[in-house]
Amino acid sequence: MSTTTPSPLLSDSLRGLGLDAGTLFFALNYEFTRIEPKGLLKRFKKNQGAIDIDIACALYDDNCTISDIVWFKQLRDKAESVRHQGDSLNGKDRGEQAMYLAPLDQEQIRLYLDKIPAHITHIAMMANSYHGHPFSRVKKGEIHLSDDEGNRCFEVNLKQLPRDCQTLWVAHLRREVDDWHLTLQNLPLAAEDLATAAQQVAYELARALPIPQGL
């Protein structure tokens, strides 16, 4: 049976959260939501008439430098330890099995934690509305994280995000000696795309690094 512990203050080791630290599933599930484009020119742009949400994982080293980004433009990292299962353009195009509340998520990223290279110490999980539509405009939708046994540690309800939020730093994994520590961030970002969001997260991670003694 799956377990769910939704909390904006969630921060603990994966073992402390009751998760199997082997494989994690970072996933997105939302209902197809049509948006009427504004302006004559936008009416001719393909896929502008529906909300398109993308998820990504950015991998960082000890210095919070980006080592890899797994997203719709790059479905796997160099070590193939983080794998995107494919892009959905509107929450509907993956077929009926991928519709909201169905067994198959529209987008899913699998993290094989035992295969992640040793120099990777931080992993940021992010989401972005590709056309700039606020997440809260979806009819229904959520972002969640679970392990391969179905244990779910959080759900982010897209309808409950700030009304102008278009890019979100969802969660952060930090490598520990014998485990990973997970923090649910739920932090809106000013970035308009996932590549810029990864840079903003790098800045935030660097700010949180301890100051070396003697400086």
TrEMBL record:
Keywords: Tellurium resistance. The keyword Repressor does not apply. This is TerD family protein. One of its GO terms (biological process) is response to tellurium ion. The keyword Kinase does not apply. Pfam families: TerD. It comes from Psychrobacter halodurans. Residues 46-183 form the TerD domain. InterPro entries: Stress/Tellurium_Resist (IPR051324), TerD (IPR003325).
